[in-house]
């Protein structure tokens, strides 16, 4: 029994229990053996126990796909046990395994609140359980509480030796000191390379290591950790302190949230695609993933960030799969525009793109032809290109660096020329996907001090042209006729007014980075907004974005084509009142900025 007490006292979620409760826990432990391939947890069967892996390894299987591997010390089953829901996943033995079976600890522990479960309700279609949320953890909590200790090794240590140390230390990875910097080797690296015979057990561990290892700051949130994993398609992050020194390792399984499972499943399928048809198959997982994230209570803006990270991965994979004869021989950068660039797309959002190449060339037409082929691949994958022409094969949106800079200066000198304000706004909402240094040249002129008051005023007037649909007599100004009679366009009347002001702030401040909410807070720091105005606009954006995301998610669930229109009568009284007040608050801020914008500009 002492062996179990020593073992469990070092493993979350039990490592915060006092000695008495630990003794109560150990008294209820039963040991269960599973042969390789045996089912430990079956989908849909109610649970009365949770388990902890003592020896061996277990596979987590989602719709036939192995999405994670649990090793010694990993707890499982607790999510569904605590939520009182049948598990949606299957857990089976990857090899001969011993597991510790424990009944619901809330029934016999004196302080069950000390159990450090870091997860949320995993059941598809069921909201996060508010009463359990404090104990289960939230995506906005620091990830430091989930960090595991580091197992270090040197570049010339043998694969055999490191594997033995990983097993003895009940770890799933090791950090490697190499001449090129910090590296990481994971259990997946061993399975892919050593188990297949590609790398021998006496080879130096450096041949397996990924260098540099991907890091995350210790004070980051769990949501940030998840997003970093999805962006890069990894299951481990090295946690570093303020000085950049490693302090621990974070694993996807430690996050143990449903929002980890589905985005990483899609991300893995994207990375495994060997042609465009397979990539298109992976893309078909994206809509249902967004639905499941919403159903499990993930904040709307976080869903948008994960969505953008997955689209980034899709475009990058398409670029690797499709040979582009002319572009492959020229330094160039693919750039995302619009909501994808701001990392706040909706399921309905188009994929807006631009292209910039390093030097003037007579191959522009051939490069645009290459770009058209790549965009056709994205259409095969189910994406819609910009209907207003913001596509990388369009000569307006595909130019050399000098061409982009000359165009931007021309827009600043004469904002009355055709499409000058529209194009300035599009360039402000740009984010390089490849060759960031080159791609950032699109926004270089935003840091220029030559921008005139006329240009900034014209941009502001254009931004203020988007007005919330609030009337003086009726609650809302709605469409009266046509296909959308009796409805509101939440994108044009709700998101666009806030996005437009945030974009204006980005241009005035010379910093095009960040989301709409991040830009608003920068505006307050620069004096372009008061703190109250920034909070009003940020809160309004979050409210409307969440409402619109919910509307589009319900359309996907019903098998319908999403749109941005809602009918006020379909909202409950509280939601309708909240939306009306949000619109009015945004309109008041617009009026205040319109009257005093010149006095707000930095000196």
TrEMBL record:
Xref: Pfam families: CBS (PF00571), cNMP_binding (PF00027), DUF294 (PF03445), DUF294_C (PF10335)
Keyword annotations from UniProtKB, A to Z: CBS domain
Keyword check for Flavoprotein: no
Highest taxon of source: Bacteria
Domain Cyclic nucleotide-binding span(s) in chain numbering: 13-102
CBS domain residues: 209-266
Parts forming coiled coils: none
Stored PANTHER family: CBS DOMAIN-CONTAINING PROTEIN, CBS DOMAIN-CONTAINING PROTEIN CBSX3, MITOCHONDRIAL
Protein's recorded name: Cyclic nucleotide-binding protein
Species assigned in the record: Phytohabitans aurantiacus
Taxon lineage: Bacteria, Bacillati, Actinomycetota, Actinomycetes, Micromonosporales
